[in-house]
Design goal:
With 200 residues, this protein is mostly helical. The protein contains six helices and two strands.
């Protein structure tokens, strides 16, 4: 996962947020007010969103350094094996090739596992942000007497800037959850399958 991919993943999360239970049921007897939020901006501009991206990038940088070091070692072993191949018997040569291929496969598996743990940590962190943001949005809706909250991307046209609560949501999220520790954890099985299908 590159830094760019980390940020894109965060934005993709923001676009897919659903705040179940955050929107009170509309009262047919009263005229409902509609509010608008830019969920991408909430995650992009909030302290916790930036903190998550920073930690994911740090994990990714460290993983890349670790893998590069192991790849360099593997390359050196391969060059040494090539130099020795002329004086080795076919059986010994075949054994060394098999051992090298096993080490190569092991390195690939280790890299994939590390990437999965980073993605799993990001997935859990964004879920925690969603849990913190839901009540914030519900509170703003109650304060404003709103019965519906729309994503800004769903709004075709509008002139009333006062209905956009993005800045207020960011402000309150910053107060409630300014930082969040991203812990490496395996992805849920369903998410693993989804990522594998996307990679195909």
């Amino acid at each position: 996962m590159t830094k760019k991919a980390s940020l894109l993943g965060l934005l993709a999360f923001a676009a897919s947020l659903t705040f179940l239970g955050a929107i009170p049921a509309a009262n047919a007897a009263t005229q409902g007010r509609i509010l608008v939020i830019d969920r991408n901006a909430v995650l992009r501009n909030s302290k916790v969103g930036q903190d998550i991206v920073r930690q994911v990038n740090s994990y990714t940088d460290q993983a890349e350094k670790d893998i590069k070091g192991q790849v360099a070692s593997l390359r050196s072993q391969f060059e040494a094996m090539k130099q020795q191949s002329a004086i080795l018997s076919n059986d010994v040569k075949a054994k060394k090739v098999k051992e090298f291929e096993a080490r190569q496969a092991g390195l690939q598996q280790a890299a994939q596992k590390k990437q999965g743990l980073i993605q799993g940590g990001f997935f859990k962190a964004r879920h925690d942000v969603e849990q913190a943001l839901g009540p914030i949005l519900q509170g703003i809706m109650v304060e404003r007497g709103a019965t519906m909250l729309l994503d800004r991307n769903a709004v075709v046209m509008g002139t009333d800037a006062s209905v956009d609560i993005t800045g207020l949501a960011v402000q309150r999220l910053d107060q409630k959850l300014p930082t969040l520790k991203v812990e490496l954890t395996p992805l849920p099985p369903g998410m693993q399958q989804q990522l594998q299908q996307q990679g195909q």
